[in-house]
Every structure is written in C-alpha cells, then in structure tokens.
Design goal:
Elements (H helix, E strand, L loop, with lengths): L10 H31 L1 H8 L8 H28 L3 H5 L8 H12 L1 H12 L8 H21 L5 H35 L2 H15 L6 H18 L3 H22 L15 H22 L9
Helix pairs in contact: 1-2, 1-3, 1-8, 3-8, 5-11, 5-12, 6-10, 6-12, 8-9, 8-10, 8-11, 9-10, 10-11
C-alpha cells in the first residue's frame, strides 16, 4: 500500500515526516562537514572540537564549516524539500510572500528594540532556575549543555576586523534568521496550526520547540518569548519576512554589540544581564503590547496602509 503525503495528510504524520527528514539531512550534512574539516585541518581538529578543546588556531574555521554544512544548509534544505516536494504547498508552509504593509517592518523593528529589558528580565528568572533535588542529574546536564553552547558561541563570535563582523552579521544575523524562520514559523507552526486548530496554541508550542532546539535551557524563557513574537508576526501578516526581519535584528544586534565590546569601542558587556531596572521591564512590556496591538490592526486590514 502506497501512502501519499500532501498538505491534507494528518498533521501528526506531517510533523514526524518533517522531523525525520530534517534529522536525516542534518546527519548527511554532518558527515560532509566532518569530512571537509578532516581534509582541510586533520582529524585532530575534529576530535578537539568534539572534546571542546578549542585552543587550536583552526578550531574557529572548522566550527564554521560544521555549523554551515551540518546545520544551516540542512535545515533550509529540509524545509524547502518538505514544502515543495512532500506537502507540495510552499505558499502555505513557507509563507514567503512579500505582500504585506511595509509599516509592519517598522513596528517589528520597534518591538525588537523595546524588548531588550523584557528579555533581560526573563533571562534573570531563567538563570535562577533550580530543579528539585531528585533532578540534580538533569540540572547538571542542562548546565553543562548551556556552558558548552556558550563556549562554542564565544569562538564563533570572535571578531577582530570589520570584515569579520560583516561576515558574521550576514551568517549569524541574516542567514540564520531565514533558515530558522522557514523551519519553525514556516513549516512547524503551520503543521501545529492544522494539528491543534488553534493559532495561539500553535504559536506557543512552536516557540517552545524553537527555544528547546537551541539546547540552552537557562536561556529558554527569553528565547521562547522571541519565538512567540515571531510567531504572531507571521500569523497576523501571512508573511515569513516580518519574522525574519525581527530575528535578524535580534541576532544582528548581538553580533554588533559583541564586536564593539571586543574591540573596546563600548563598555557594555553583551553578557551583562543587569543593565535595566524594574521600571524599564514594565515599560518594555507595556510598549510591546501596544505595538503588537498596532501590528495586529494593520496586518489584519483594520487600518489601510501601503503594501510592498
């Protein structure tokens, strides 16, 4: 019996197929990336990365190869194959239309800028998370995973020249935003919207999966909040590009601030989570809610604005 998969297939099956497809392509990508690293730098560099021994001068370049070949390219490939070849409805599952009011990009920019205090507040809550004693083993694993992710990120974000910063702005800022939004707000959020029959449930579930995907559990809440914002940007506008824009602003700001701090152009440490006060947290929340209300009204046509 031949099972035909398309957009009318049960969402639960769609989700399983998408996850299996993504894991499979990531596996192939890792083999290709590992082979490239061994060919260029030797097997010792690959082993050092696996042991998180990142002192080798070639470690950063090897990490970039692994990141792009084994993660970035496979994720976008899986999303495109799923949308075009499996469910055969890229319009619904990728939402790549540019037909939306241009003012939404301005509102998205404002939301991302104003969200900084709220992100800090959620980060501080997350950092204080303590699991019950019988879950000490789980908490240690979560902390170790977080530390490993931060160590790898620190290597990837080393920038000594403006050209290095521009490269990482394009890859970490723009390319990562496109790839992850096609995967999460495109394919996965669409699947869960069909599965639950509830847009809000789909957005929050997708945001939780988006945050868990990064394997940084002590940054789970702020990343989930960002996922929720991106989810509503797409759900209300019908376009992935407003979320890509917001995602790019978030990632790009981190890259630029890291570059300026590393080169002693600013004194604000991007890892400092105690910049704002409770007044700023409350102000951030109120303004974000107002901007989302404005975004919703414009995106759903309650206010007529020019379209791109």
């Amino acid at each position: 019996m031949i099972i035909t998969v398309n957009k009318h297939t049960r969402p639960s099956l769609q989700f399983l197929i998408f996850i299996a497809l993504t894991i499979g392509i990531i596996g192939v990508g890792y083999l290709i990336g590992a082979a490239a690293v061994i060919g260029l730098f030797g097997a010792n560099v690959l082993m050092d990365i696996a042991r998180l021994n990142l002192t080798d001068p070639n470690a950063a370049n090897a990490l970039w190869i692994l990141q792009i070949v084994s993660t970035t390219i496979p994720i976008i490939t899986a999303s495109v194959i799923f949308a075009y070849a499996i469910v055969k409805d890229p319009k619904e599952y990728l939402k790549s239309t540019f037909k939306f009011p241009w003012i939404l990009l301005v509102i998205t920019f404002c939301v991302m800028v104003i969200s900084s205090p709220l992100i800090e507040y959620l980060s501080n809550i997350n950092q204080k998370m303590v699991l019950p004693h019988f879950l000490d083993g789980l908490q240690k694993w979560m902390r170790d995973t977080e530390d490993q992710a931060q160590k790898l990120t620190a290597v990837l974000l080393q920038m000594k020249t403006i050209w290095s910063m521009i490269f990482k702005l394009l890859v970490i800022g723009l390319l990562t935003a496109i790839v992850e939004e096609f995967m999460f707000r495109g394919c996965i959020q669409t699947i869960f919207t069909k599965w639950t029959g509830n847009m809000h449930a789909a957005i929050w579930i997708t945001a939780a999966l988006f945050s868990a995907f990064h394997m940084e559990f002590f940054g789970f809440l702020p990343r989930m909040m960002l996922g929720v914002l991106f989810g509503y940007f797409v759900a209300w506008s019908g376009s992935i590009w407003t979320a890509v824009w917001g995602h790019f602003i978030n990632n790009g700001t981190a890259v630029i601030v890291s570059y300026l701090f590393q080169n002693k152009m600013i004194k604000i440490n991007p890892d400092d989570q105690h910049i704002f006060n409770y007044g700023a947290y409350l102000f951030s929340l109120i303004i974000i809610l107002f901007l989302l209300y404005l975004y919703y009204n414009i995106a759903t046509g309650k206010k007529q604005m020019p379209v791109l």
